[in-house]
Amino acid sequence: MANEADVMARNILGSTPKLDSHSLTPSFTRPSTNQAPAALEARLRQKRSAAYVEAMRKLDAGGHIHHREALEQLLTTIQQELPEIAVEHLPAGIVARCYLGHPYEVHTLDYTGQILQHYKFSESLPSMLSRGRSLALHPGYAFIEVYPDKLIAVAENGETSLIKG
Predict the structure, then answer these.
(1) Helices (H), the chain
(2) Does some domain include residue 9?
(3) Are 57 and 98 in contact (CB under 8 A)?
(4) Is residue 125 included in any domain, yes or no?
(5) Phi, then psi, of 19 in degrees rounded to 5
(6) What is the pLDDT of residues 75-104, one digit of tens each?
(7) Is 66 a member of any domain?
(8) Where is this region: Disordered (predicted)?
(9) CA dist 152 to 16, 31, 130, 134, 135, Å?
(10) Is residue 22 assigned to a domain?
(11) Model confidence over 21-47: pLDDT tens digits?
(12) DSSP 3-state assignment of 143?
């Protein structure tokens, strides 16, 4: 059984976890674009693929920690879901219900796919991600994509709901 520190934060790329880091540092190298706000919003409202939803659901299972092939598949799925979206328009992170059991409530994933952090009921999330916590606990949603100016709630079937603010 993993110790508590191993459960709380995992770097899924295989290097040492950063337990005290709450910064969300992008590492994708995508060109910056001047995508029209209406076109960007329309694209972000589109249904998410079954592969993307399933990849997010498997985060608690831990297979990506132990099997290189599973890790590569997860990272590819995440990076390919919104390939035409410029890096500055990608979600800052993802918040989802944690199924590790008591005392854990939610987990977060920075959008680079590098840090998976599990939070107990009483623990605070980084300020930007905390906006998605209550929605992540709603049984109708698989996970919440957190953006600086909006939340996108993603259902099990990939349907999205955009919440501004």
Answers:
(1) 4-8, 37-44, 50-57, 63-66, 68-81, 127-130, 133-136
(2) yes
(3) no
(4) yes
(5) -70, -30
(6) 678 778 888 888 788 888 899 998 888 999
(7) yes
(8) 16-35
(9) 30, 23, 14, 13, 10
(10) no
(11) 333 333 444 444 567 888 889 999 999
(12) strand
Which amino acid does the sequence have at 58? Answer: K
Count the Cβ atoms, other than its own, within 10 Å of residue 49: 13
Structure tokens at 101: 């059991």
Q: Which two tokens stand for residue 82?
A: 């919104």
Place of tokens 């459960």: 7
Contacting residues for 37 by C-beta, under 8 A, at least 6 apart: none
Beta strands per DSSP E along the chain: 9-11, 93-97, 104-110, 115-120, 143-147, 150-154, 160-164
Domain interval for residue 143? 4-13+37-164
Q: Give the amino acid at 124.
A: S
What own/partner pairs with CB < 8 Å and gap ≥ 24 does 143-146 have? 143/53, 143/56, 143/57, 143/94, 143/95, 143/96, 144/94, 144/95, 144/96, 145/91, 145/94, 146/91, 146/92, 146/93, 146/94, 146/95
Number of domains in the chain: 1
Q: Do you know the residue count of the chain?
A: 165
